[in-house]
Structure formats: structure tokens, C-alpha cells
């Protein structure tokens, strides 16, 4: 499993042969544990999500929702950056519904925080919490793509991700509110 995470982390297209070589076993041995590449990719994603959940469980989400969102996004960013290539492999190998199922627990943490921020009046309530959570998901994954492409420095990404998340979620000030469309 460690070899799968390593190989898929380097390249979403890593083959069973690449993974077997990394693990120091033959392909037949690897297929003895995982009947297909899809099964191995799913197992690798599950492993990374479980490791990420252990990290995110330690993030304090009490107190000011703005501070909690910043901390959650910065912590979540590091996990996304580490797992971006494995997620890319999973997106190519697994049905979209399965990936959503596997992400349900981490996404619930974000939804709960956004709903609390909306209730407390610091996050915008003019958009559904699910839409805001989806936007945050896209911000993190987009930043991972930009880091991989060299358009964003990996040390700058956590701050940018957190700032963009707050810009999306915070109640807009009067100056920043959209103007009504002309009639």
C-alpha cells in the first residue's frame, strides 16, 4: 500500500508494474492482494483519506468560524497537495459517486463549519452551505493543479487557499456587495 501511495503520488498513471517494482514484489503478488488497478487506487485513496481524517480531527473548529475556516483550509490544503496525484488516479479509475462517498466524512466537517458560520452571521447565508463547501473544494484542488504546473509556489499556497476561502464565505461588506442589474 505504501508503494501504491508513493507511485501514484508521483504519477497518476503509475502502472501495476511500477507499483510492484516500488514494493519489491512481482505483479502476480500484487494482483494477489488487489484484483485490479482500480481496487488498488481505491485502497490508496481510502488510506490517504483516513490519514487526513486523523490530522483534521485535531483541528480546533470551535471559536470564531473565520479562524476555524482559515485553520481548516490551511491544514486541508497540505493534505490535498500530498494526495493530488492519487486523487487524479482515482478520478480516472473510479466512478464519481464512489469518490464522493469516500470524501463524505471530510466534507461534512466543512459543511458543519460553514453552517455554524452562517448561523452566527459571519458567513454569507445568501448561498447554500453546500455550494460554499463545493467552492472551497474547487479552490483547494485548483491550487493543487497550479502548484503542480508551477504557477503557484507551494509555500504560498496555504495562505492563498485560506484567503480565497474567506473571500468566498464571508458576508460581503456594503462596498463589496454586487450591484443590482439595471432594469
UniProtKB/TrEMBL annotation:
- Residues of the DNA-binding region: 15-34
Q: Which InterPro entries match?
A: Homeodomain-like_sf, HTH-type_TetR-like_transc_reg, HTH_TetR, Tet_transcr_reg_TetR-rel_C_sf
What is the annotated signal peptide range for this record? none
Sorted keywords for this record are: DNA-binding, Transcription, Transcription regulation
Stretches assigned to the HTH tetR-type domain: 1-52
What PANTHER family does its record include? Answer: HTH-TYPE TRANSCRIPTIONAL REGULATOR BETI, HTH-TYPE TRANSCRIPTIONAL REGULATOR RUTR
Q: Supply the name of the protein.
A: TetR/AcrR family transcriptional regulator
The species this protein was found in:
Plantactinospora sonchi
Amino acid at each position: 500500500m505504501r508503494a501504491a501511495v508513493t507511485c501514484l503520488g508521483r504519477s497518476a498513471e503509475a502502472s501495476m508494474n511500477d507499483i510492484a517494482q516500488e514494493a519489491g514484489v512481482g505483479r502476480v503478488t500484487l494482483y494477489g492482494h488487489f484484483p485490479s488497478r482500480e481496487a488498488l487506487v481505491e485502497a490508496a485513496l481510502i488510506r490517504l483519506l483516513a490519514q487526513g481524517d486523523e490530522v483534521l480531527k485535531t483541528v480546533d473548529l470551535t471559536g470564531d468560524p473565520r479562524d476555524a475556516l482559515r485553520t481548516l483550509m490551511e491544514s486541508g490544503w497540505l493534505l490535498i497537495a500530498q494526495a493530488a496525484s492519487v486523487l487524479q488516479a482515482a478520478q480516472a479509475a473510479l466512478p464519481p459517486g464512489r469518490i464522493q462517498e469516500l470524501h463524505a466524512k471530510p466534507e461534512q466537517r466543512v459543511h458543519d463549519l460553514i453552517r455554524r458560520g452562517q448561523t452566527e452571521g459571519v458567513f454569507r447565508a445568501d448561498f447554500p452551505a453546500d455550494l460554499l463547501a463545493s467552492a472551497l473544494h474547487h479552490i483547494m484542488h485548483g491550487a493543487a493543479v497550479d502548484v503542480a504546473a508551477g504557477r503557484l509556489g507551494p509555500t504560498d499556497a496555504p495562505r492563498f487557499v485560506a484567503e480565497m476561502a474567506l473571500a468566498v464565505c464571508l458576508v460581503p461588506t456594503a462596498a463589496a456587495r454586487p450591484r443590482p442589474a439595471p432594469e
